[in-house]
Amino acid sequence: MNKEQTIRRKILLWYSQNKRDFPWRHTKNPYEIMIVEFMLHRTRADQVVPVYRDFIKKYPDIDSLASADPVEVSKVTENLGLHWRGKHFINAALFIRDNFRSKIPDSRDKLLTVPGIGDYVAGAILTVVFNKKEWVVDSNIARFLNRFYGLKLRGEIRRKRELIKITKRLYQTTRSEQLTFALLDFSAMVCKPVKPVCCSCIVKTKCTY
DNA sequence: AAGCCGGGGGG
DNA sequence: CCCCCAGGCTT
Question: Quick check: A27 pLDDT over 90?
């Protein structure tokens, strides 16, 4: 068994006993996942919960959002900060309505053509919704892998080629959906940015940090 | 490769 | 009061 398989097994086992619960963990609707991933940009998950509920209630699908009043949409999202995101939601909805017949695509190439969707959001949709053999890197997962493999990368490590390469190897699994949530929760709760809880880490014996 | 956006919560 | 947070876009 290689190193990646071992990590996957341990992280998934840890996840089965320590998973966080959020409203968007109970849906496979690609639209809802896209919306919440937009909201989670540099924003704490707890802060997103009420806004997400309100947003989905008012704009339940691509078409309702595409034809919505931008000012009204901004009112829903304003307390998330990063105010440019208000237009961002509608632009993505318009693009998907006009180019993909209101159906969110299931390939990375097509997802990346949508304004506001980058590698992270695309990967999240592909794994969480479609359970594809795809990959996801965010700042938390990047930090965990950087420590675990002793890469010693600095700066915006989530964009580094070497890190993406390792992530793709880690995602050689048929359980990409579970793995994404597991990595997000583990890196947020155990392998934290400051004061990581190494004493209760289930992969510490193989960690080079 | 680096700067920028932003309100809100925690140290 | 300061710092950070499930990124993507622009230069």
Answer: yes
CB contact at 8 A, A172 and A8? no
Which residue's CA is nearest to the C1' of nucleotide C6?
A40
Residue A133: CA count within 13 A, CB half-sphere: 4
- pTM for this structure? 0.95
Size of chain A in residues: 209
At A59, the amino acid letter reads: Y
Q: A62, A63, A40, A61: which is closest to A136 by C-alpha?
A: A40
**Torsion sign across C-alpha atoms A56, A181, A42, A136:** negative
CATH fold label, A3-20+133-206: Endonuclease Iii, domain 2 (1.10.1670)
Tell me if A25 sits within 8 A of A181, measured CB to CB.
yes
Checking if the pLDDT of A166 tops 80, the result is yes
Q: Which CATH class is domain A23-129?
A: mainly alpha
Asked whether residue A133, judged by its CB, lies under 7 Å from any atom of the DNA or RNA strand C, the reply is no
List every span in chain A annotated with CATH 1.10.340.30.
Answer: 23-129
Residue A64 CA distance to nucleotide B4 C1' (Å)? 30
